[in-house]
Amino acid sequence: MIKSKKILKLLIATTALGISVPSLADVKTGVDAWGRGDYQTAISEWRGPAANGDADAQFNMAQAYKLGRGVTMDLSQAETWYKKAADQGHLQASDNYGLILFQNNRRAEALPYLQSSSSRGEPRAQYVLGTGHFNGDFVEKDWIKAYALMTRASAKGLPQATSNIGQMDKYIPISDRRRAVELASQMEQDEKRVRTAQVGGLRPAQRTGPIQTAQIPPSRAATPQLTPAPNSVPGASYASAAEPQSTAPISAMPLNPRPVRAATDGKWRVQLGAFSDQKKAKNLWRNLEGRVSGLRDLQPYLVYANGITRLQAGPFSSRSQAVNMCSKVKTSGNACIVKTK
Questions:
Q1: Which of 31, 109, 139, 335 has the most neighbouring CB atoms within 10 Å?
Q2: How far is CA 35 from CA 30, 66, 69, 213, 321, in A?
Q3: If you average pLDDT over every residue of the chain, what do you get?
Q4: CB contact at 8 A, 217 and 182
Q5: How does pLDDT run across 296-321, given as a tens digit for each residue?
Q6: Among the CATH numbers 3.30.70.260, 3.30.300.30, 3.30.70.1070, 3.40.50.2020, which is that of 250-340?
Q7: pLDDT at 265 over 80
């Protein structure tokens, strides 16, 4: 069962605040002001268009209320503006609105938004749904689907998803994990088709140029806790999710040094997991090196930044070599991402 006391803190906090840029000049002026840190001017430019029904201005107002920039922080107001924009088909607003509903324990209302977001590859929604399917608390219990969704979220760089996969490995049979990896591959293809069908037809701003962003502090990642219940069925808690952080200087993991036969001048690596506890990264390495062919010949690394330790291995002289190793790792049921150092 879920440890509800450790439920999702606020999944919608990310490392970059997306500010939509529609064709209306005054809303674009507000975006420019926001980029300069002149939040009050930005709000004054957005408030009128938002009240008149401009979805991008409504989304921007929601973001401002969520952060308390240019206005007093008010999550209720943020929810209201997200909904107004989401009702007009604004995809980013729909993503955030579903996560806010879930965070407020309005799960039945959140579910269709989460499912829609997940279908086009939104990793935070996939993380929430994957945890739900693992526990069977607000959606049906389905460990194969849970593992597949968590694999997709991990592939997008969500640290908590990668951590949860390592925990799920303790309970989900290897045969089911292999089926889940195949399902995750199909999900990836489905996501592309859904995005192709949705993007461009719902939001005029999609046609006016790239979205501008303003940097905000990232949310702090929390490690999911999986605790076997009395009937031996584990329960995963929902952790606050953050986008991937920049890497800090890399140090080699001190695990029984051995000759490394991989190309020492390669810039490519494979990432096997991300944890708030360094011991879990080391344990994952010990687990994987014994059952993934060729992995034990690589050099393991700990990449530490912003409270998160990422387990990587390499180096590889080409991306294709790293991709091949990731394929082997995924076949074993563990997530894997190709990275450059």
A1: 335
A2: 9, 17, 12, 7, 40
A3: 76
A4: no
A5: 888 888 887 656 778 888 888 888 89
A6: 3.30.70.1070
A7: no
